[in-house]
Amino acid sequence: MSADSERTTAIYGGGGHHIEPLRGPENFVPWTVRMEDILDDMDYWPIVKGELKKPENDKEDKWTKKDHKTLTQIHLCVSEAMIPYIMSTKTSKDAWDMLQAMFKVSGPIAAVLIRWKLFRYMMEEGSNVEEQICTLRGYQEQLVALDSAVSDKDFAFVLLTALPDSWDPFVSALDTSDLEMNKLIGRILAEDNRRKARATTETTLFAKKGKEMKKGKFRKGVTCYNCNKEGHLASECRGLKKNAGSSKPSKVHHTLDHNTDDSYEFNIFDKQTFFLFTSYHETPDGKISGAGSCRALRRETVSVIFKVDGRNISVTLQDAIHAPDLPSNLISMGRLTKAGFTFGGLGDNFFIKKGDRTIGRGRKFNNLYQLDVTPAVSTAYIAKTGHIWYKWHCILGHLNKAQLRDLKKHSVGMNVNESSDFDFACEPCIQAKQARRPFPKESETQYKDVGELTVFDTWGPARTESIHCNRYYVSFTDAKSRDSTIGFMRSRDAALDHFKKYKACVEKQTRKKLKAVRCDNAKEFVDGKFKAYLDEQGIILEMTAPYSPAQNGIAEHLNRTLVEYARAMLIAKNLPKFLWEDAVAYACFLKNQSPTRALGGKTPYEAFWGKVPNISDLHEFGSDVWVLRLETQQNKLEAKSEKFLFTGFSNGSRAY
């Protein structure tokens, strides 16, 4: 029996109280809360609680009648399975105490059991998130009743860890330093509703064409492959109807006959797409089943571009068939699923997915799904074209679009395919950079010379120790050129050593002295050693006001920029978190090569060194690279190259 069918009504006056009947320990806590409210509203609760006892002179039996009504209400609000337990009770208090003794949890063991359920709770993919949150809240309230309460902050962490794996990007984007439970639950429910709405609209397959025409009308541009006349389909051909005894199938199937009893699925292309084939081989006696005796020519691969949400996705189709006499291009769904793709849809919409990523969309037309697809020109015998805008965005550490366009004007070696879409959407950037409030974009004070002011700050500790065993970094930024340098540390105590190296490098390269520095009130900057060194060198120390990070906006903005770029690069290539140090170092390198509004569109590299940066040798962080093995004693039959991941440039050289 469903919960709705078991829902009962406790009658009161002209209206009523709706309550789900008690089934057992699984709903005992919410049932108890509601029953207390109902009995209190009906003035029965003092009798159940024992506060209103039976008077000695109850001649009119008022108390007895009221107690009997109370017992009746309890009987009406429990399921049939609970009736035998309270059937023999004489008063409402006895019935209530019986239920409390049976189902109310108490003692330290009960608290341990509920805590075990709470902290080990995991939501399943696709489950009702709102119901799961209510279950967790029920555990929290039970612990309150047992004097073993879980704080709202701890409950917020429990709630986040209970979410399914598909919610990891959502959890990573949250600011865990300010987790207010009610707001967190609201954000989770809003995200769940967004996902449900998106899931119901995601859909379907093939190239867009004109409106559907009714049977019997003249079809412009359509040629019948039965009589080769224009204006109708083969299924409408009069010649086909006259020769019904020898008629051929009217539907085109995705199979290729090899003079055997077996059929194999292939992707089929017509004569209008011949230019997509760079080379192909004839298939002896090959025929397309259901399409007459048209010639079938086999080709190894065909490259096309699927358009999804304004982005171009390159797709290579294996074992494609060139069938010049076919009127349409067809894609085998059987081969898609065999290759690990999935497809589905709702109504007239259709989608193709590889894992969680949608790679193709389309709509239904004449009972076929048509993909939004364009041909990709073969690059086997033509010069190499430039990267598309999105690829340069990834290569440059997920640089924002405004700086990306400025860099094209103020650098050499950035070969861009101008026909590519500039209005792209980058999911790693959305996951990594989403924030509530930006830092100040530019300083109010203008500085004339390098070294006039240097701002610095430390970041850390990182939750994950880097591959080089570091958990902190300290950044130094020249306020004039905005050129930044960072040093990684195992502890904050090494900040002074990194500052000495930075000071020596700047003064040696520019022949200009550091005049002033600005930092926050961090312990490593205000201790005796650091301040004594600055006094010895005659460098002015400017400290920000307590709890005022905006006064050190350049350094704070740099920290957020570097960490966001690094996080986006790690997410984009699904790299382990212990590579955060290499990602931050490469992000700082790219930041110095990228335009900034504070310099009027110039790069910090140009402002510091006096020449434009050359970025022709840049690569996307985490991309595959092949390294030549130079061992002299290696076996002559061993591979000469070994595959690695690109993680930046070596300090002091141009080596990767």
Describe the structure concisely for a colleague.
Residues 434-612 form the Integrase catalytic domain. The chain has 656 residues and is an alpha+beta fold.
Task: Give a description of the structure.
This protein has 656 residues and is of the alpha+beta class. The protein folds into four domains: 101 residues, no CATH class; 95 residues; 157 residues, no CATH class; 228 residues, Ribonuclease H-like superfamily/Ribonuclease H (Nucleotidyltransferase, domain 5, 2-Layer Sandwich). 34% of the residues lie in helices and 19% in strands. It has 22 helices and 22 strands. The strands form six sheets. Strands 5, 6, 7, 8, 9, 10 and 15 form a seven-stranded mixed beta sheet that branches. Strands 18-17-16-19-20 form a five-stranded mixed beta sheet, sandwiched between helices. Strands 11-12-13-14 form a four-stranded antiparallel beta sheet. Strand 3 and strand 4 form a beta hairpin. Helix 20 crosses helix 21. The longest helix has 21 residues. The two termini are 68 Å apart. 25% of the residues are buried. The N terminus is likely disordered. It comes from Phanerochaete carnosa (strain HHB-10118-sp). GO terms for molecular function: ATP binding; DNA-directed DNA polymerase activity; endonuclease activity; peptidase activity; RNA binding; RNA-directed DNA polymerase activity; zinc ion binding. This is Integrase catalytic domain-containing protein. One of its GO terms (cellular component) is nucleus. Pfam families: gag_pre-integrs (PF13976), Pol_BBD (PF22936), Retrotran_gag_2 (PF14223), zf-CCHC (PF00098).
